[in-house]
User: Fold these one by one.
Assistant:
Number 1:
Amino acid sequence: MPLASPPDVSYLSDYAHDWALVDVETSGLVARRDRVLSIAVLTFGPDGVQTGEYATLLNPGCDPGPVHVHGLTPERLSGAPTFEQVAGRIGALLQDRVMVAHNAQFDYDFLAHEFARARLYLPVAQRLCTLALNRRVEPPVAGLGLAALAEYYGVPQTSAHDALDDTRVLAGIFRSSLAEAARLGVPLPLVACPPRQDAQFAPKPPKTPCAYRNPGRPAPGDPLVQGMKIAVTGETATSRAELVARAVDAGLNIMSSVSRHTGVLVTNDSASGSEKARRAVAEGVTIVDEHTFLKLLADVRPGTPYEGPTRGRASVAERPAAPAAPGPVAAPPVPVPAGAPAPAFVPAEAPAPVPAPAGAPPRQRPAAPYPARPFGRRRVLVLGGTHQEASVVRARVVELGGAAAINLSAGVTDVLLLPGGELDRRMARVTALGIPVHPQDWLGTPAAEPLDAPAGNGAVAEVLSRGGVIDLPTAGQWHVAASWAQLADCEIDVVAFVLDEDEQVSCDEDFVFYGAPESPDGSVRLRCDGPTEQSIAVDLAALPPAAHRIAVAAAIDGAETFGSVGAVQVVLAPGVDAPAVAQATLDAATSERTLLLAEIYRRGPRWRFRAVGQGYDHGLEALVRGYGVEVE
């Protein structure tokens, strides 16, 4: 049940900060392009007492966008101040406080761009997302939108999409969420915020996508064909911009790097020793000089156009239909990036048996009288044991139809102890919360859950094992979120690659990571929701026609391995605050530093999602090069 009167947590230093709660209404969803139309800021002290309030409409100097959503017409905004005129006051409210918002990266990015336009510094050093906080808490609600959480926590909401009312609702949700986090011992997902006042944070203009499939390399003396991949290196008499423009106009695909799929490298000095030239020689790529290439451009033969799915747009808030085929479906082998070292392990459709830890029960399915999958309503947290022992037990939980948790939350129904688990720092909370604790032989004789028992989080997500696949609708946005336990002193980066049919990026900007958190066309974005959770948002309708696969990976910055980090949980949802459609708990073995988490890929006219869990011993750089990204 929600807390009617959240207790004071100001005496707990981990939960006591000076806060600035923020909500913005905007003319669109893209911070580098759209503008803030209204803003509200409420400030609170560590004791939860409100210390300030400010709200104003803003004149954006542009079309206000979806008036049917926010109700802010040009007439209402015409007499309002510009952001530049109130930036100083807003900055003073944010200074030396933790910024709090629901889907905080959205509000933070818009403020960062507005401050940059005003040539001012955004004074936010840390932010906290109440959406990410409630993902950790896991209250029993189907979705984590502001309205759903307000209803659960008993917070009245009078005017949705009004910045001031939304911020007041946020304040009530935040107080209750903080109290729940303190009750569960959940660390706050505070995010350190880098300076964002420079224009360098805006993505580069999108590369013109090639509309034709790659026909491969030309034979000696043969003409070029539309869709061939062309790379250029070194000095040219024709300006590089003109050379690229003429090639693109002819239907060729200009690449920023050379791989085994490159058709032609254009260079006036093949012996220059450049990285592209060396790779072209090693891969047997056809090399021509500028003069020859210009002659070939005069007679480029027709290529085969891509035939992608219908590219209709769906609303961000629109919930796609359920997967066409429930449960796992057959999936192709996981592609290995060109030139990348072999993975530490390659999953088959059914993972190979792993030796069970000492004393663990046999891994055959349980017999009657209970069903073959009795864990359908259970979420089990495994504590103790070695990483390999814990991974075997988590896999067994999934075999029994349950979900394997990686953190303590309100959604955890059971705790299973392996040797040493009783010393885990979370056991005191587990005992205080009254969560059932089981020995490791419990998996051999579990009690069946009632078939009509409600799901712990108000919704049922498909639990996928490693290699599991589900079908997706062809339109709309999908979020692939990754999270892990905060048990290792290391940085983990989630990244994404937009790949063509050759499993290569079309340009370096199709590598999405912390330094370039958005693909040029905005179809793939990185979101940082906390120190142990990051997500990739994919707009299937906005992807270029050549996009065949979006690979999502995680990499450790440093010498640690995923063996010390433990399991990584991957959740697929059709919106930033929508109920999960699928989830998987992925265990790398012991030595991996890079982990391919999941992929969204085309199969005929449909898109599919696959939980991968394929690890590599090498670092991120080798994976990046293998997908055709130039690394400086």
Number 2:
Amino acid sequence: MQKIIFSVLFMFVFYNTYVSGQQLDKIGKEGEIKVDGGISVDQVYRENTYNTGNPWSTVATGRLNTSLYGLSIPLSFTWSNEQWTYTQPFNQFSLSPSYKWVTMHLGWSSMSFSPYGLSGHSFAGVGIEAAPAGKFSFSAMYGRLQKELPGDTVKGYDPTYRRTGTGIRGAYNFDKGEVSMSLFYAADDTHKPVEYIDSLGITPKENLVLSAHVNYRITDNLSVIADVGISNLSNDRRYSGATDFNGAATSRYHAAKTSLSYSTSIGSIGGTVEYVEPGYESLGAYYMVNDFVHYTLDVATSLFQGRVTAAASGGIRQNNLDDQSDSDTRDVVSNISIGFSPSERLMFNLMYSNYSSYTHIQTLFDEVEAQTEYELMDTLRFTQISENASLSANWRLSDSESDAHALMFNLALQKASQSQSDVPENTNTTFISASSGYQWSRKPQNFTLGLNTNYSRNKSSDQTNEMTGPVLSIRKSFFEKTLQSSLSVAWNGTYVDGESSGSVFTTRLSQSYTLKKKHRFSLSGTYNNRKRDGSNKQYYTISFRYSYNFSWPGKDTNNGQ
């Protein structure tokens, strides 16, 4: 914590000194100094929880943006006395000062240079983006991509090496497009080996990725986009590094994607070819699908003054390019999305896809089991979706000055396999979720009532889990909306292979009060009763939050209530 405070003070003094020396001509002009931000503190008490530690938890978040004579210095932080997530630290600090065309990232950040190199991976370190008024731009980063962790066999987490990464990207922009190149390097730290990690077959990796990107507009209607990636990967850097192309543990992989599109007044049409060599991997991306070649044709259009919108993709996808896999498949892949609005009050959306993609899924089971919002945070447990279909409908029955009535329906089907730390779990799993609801609003009284029914089904090779039940929610505001009240009551029955396995009853009551538009006090309580396998357990959670938002100079200091 002392290091964080020191860093903030150092950056503040440094940039104040820099601005004072370079921007003296702006002193006295309007809007030379502006400060805005906010801070919130949560106190959470949980009784009879899964955790055996301290029932009290504290979470603090804050943001501060300072503008000094054209220099912007945004700061944000998150701190907790509890490790809510395992694979990445919950406590994070981020500072992103910018001046004219230069932006720096200090602390926890994420940057993307290429879909085949550094692609959105978060890191703790420093980054810079420079985009001057000319045609050239530059980006660079250095930081820790992964913590050194001993692993947890109970929770199912593998141990990991400490991993650091370095990346640079240069781009040239011209009238008809852009050309860029990037270099990314990452390596695991072998100087501090993790105990017993070798016995699990986990080896220290090293990776060097060279990427290129081209976006060129051939004519006003015709354009081409191309991405290329070359990845040198060492699966054990103790034997050979990423730059040792002939090393025993080093391999080189290639990936490329090219898209051509043509647009007209009624829509667009295009084609894409993507090739990713078997084994292609980048340590700058969390997940990457490899071993395939993909040919796609894309069409999109809008008809009847926008009442019907449609987009479709179809193509052929083939894997096992090196004939080393046990299965050799050639699939016809497709993606269809249709929107239909016969009137302003009625809307339908239909979507189907059988592309492979990674996403983070929270099922109805996760939401019901969680006692606080922090337990639903992403812990990098991703799910690979192979097929996905959804249908949604919204119908506003009436919408007058006094009342509003609406019906809604959602249905989603997904075929998936789950992966954590590159270990496949729950393969050939099917998720089905459905919900329908009715909402009534009394506008003059600021009153809303909603009644929903939820259904969730999770079918794997071992068993089928189901959960279904109603949810009643009530919201009401008082005193010109400064006091907000809400109540929700939910009951869900759980079933395993068609047999009842228990039920979950949850009640949530919350109150929040806003004082002078800057101070907000929130108090909420949750009661949870779970019956499962003959046991009956009760859980209580009480949360108190205080948040404060400020700006200087204020727009109107006498505007508060």
Number 3:
Amino acid sequence: MGKKILYLGISFLAFIIVLTIGYFFLRPDYYSSVVVLNSGWEVTYNDTKYENVELSNLRKLIGNRTHKGDIITLKNDNVNLLNFVSPTIMFESRFSAWRVYSGEELIGQRFLDEYKNGKFIGCENNFVSLPKKIKPSNIQINLLVAEEGAYDYYDAPAVGGYVGLLTFEVYNHMFIYLVSAFLIVFGIIFFAVAIGFRSDIAEVNMQIYAALMYLVLGIWFLAQFRLLDLFIETNGHQTEIEYISLYMVVPLMYLTIGCMRDYLNNKVFLGFSVVGSLVPFALIIIHFAGLVHINRTLLIYQLDAAVLIGFMFVMVLLKDAKGNLVTKSQYTQLIGQIGLASAFAINVFFYYLEIYGITKQIFLSKLIVPVAAICMVFGTLLNYYTFISESFARNEEYSSLAHLAYADELTGLANRSKYEAYMEKLTKSEMDYCIVSIDLNGLKAINDNQGHLMGDKYITEFGKTLDEIFGKEGFVGRIGGDEFVAILTGDSMDKLDEFIEKLNNKLDELNKLDPSINRSAAIGYAFRHEYENADPNRVYLKADERMYANKELMHGTRS
């Protein structure tokens, strides 16, 4: 177990190193192609005007949170666009309709109809082309706030070429982008693998829901950091995708935990999981029914998630893990989930500090959930690797026990119990078959005159020879001291005489090499098709009868 953790730990560090290297090597030279417009703004908030404002400090000037119906006007008279081939402004709008002016000219607008009709407006990174001018341009952004608390802090717009801005935005969130891409790809692949091995085993089904959780987490990160719209067209639904993917984490977490030790059959857990999973679905339905916008229900979801975390801590960590009822493979998965839950709790804590104007979210609070998700991925891999290793060990143990139960100790051939089980299968079968009864000649005399070691040698050599000739073609077993049986089906029955001749020739060769034992066998056989509605025992009795007739003939010939 220690080596497995070490190897996965090394893999995790290698993954982080690759991300870090990628972060620096893919760093674009955007300082000459992108200008961040943080200072020099004239801001009008409703009827109050603020001069020469740095947007990062605007919340401190305005105080409180913005309200539905507020109008915020951002104006900058000194934007130099001369260095850009196709100048573009990039700015974030949060739950707002907007208009962009260059001087007196309206050059872009969006979500005005949704604003007038009271429909949901999400958060977007907007790109608006600007007219290229020799002199510094006047740019004005009007924000029409559609939700309470839309702007907790203000991110400064940036101007540059479109490609430069796109590269700038991706690089600023390179870690998030790479983590999200990894989670989505890993989730899809691991889900396909888990589906392929789907069974009644809890650990396997647990991987299915864990894979889906990684998939929705990857989508959530992209949408939360406004990266999803950079690569696919969401038609203004990026924020809804963000909240829906986030809301799916709790049900998937319940399902993942529920597969541990078959918790879903526990009435208490089932009650919690059903109610806890219905809450996010109800919030989504309420949103699309037009009753309450999905961002307004975040607190309810957070409380629902807090119940999950508390329940997971009490039931799983304190009760079952402490009582040594959780397997090693489940325990690694559990640690990953607890780490993810703890990261969410820290993220929520700093989120509310930002909402109430105490401080903006620190960089670590934004990255802690993606980092925890990656840690959980490696926990899942360790869980899966441990489960597979334990499964192979159990299978080897079961195979060993099965071999001991059904194998003859001396020859390694099937024993009488295996023979009877095989005969039972033949009873239920409609196919034709041939049963060959084989009896060693002279075994008792060898045991009496030369000792049981020589007798065992005789049996062992004969068993090996019989298996070489008949083993690849059908069933071979030792059912008594000197009694052997072979059962042939299909095309192998046509080669019966050939097999018998090979067996006799092989015994003659052994006699020449080692004349201390006179090796020979009496053989008789019978086919199912010789009788109507014959059962295997009757066919065997006939083969046995013919074997004894052959034995008497051999004794008569020798005398």
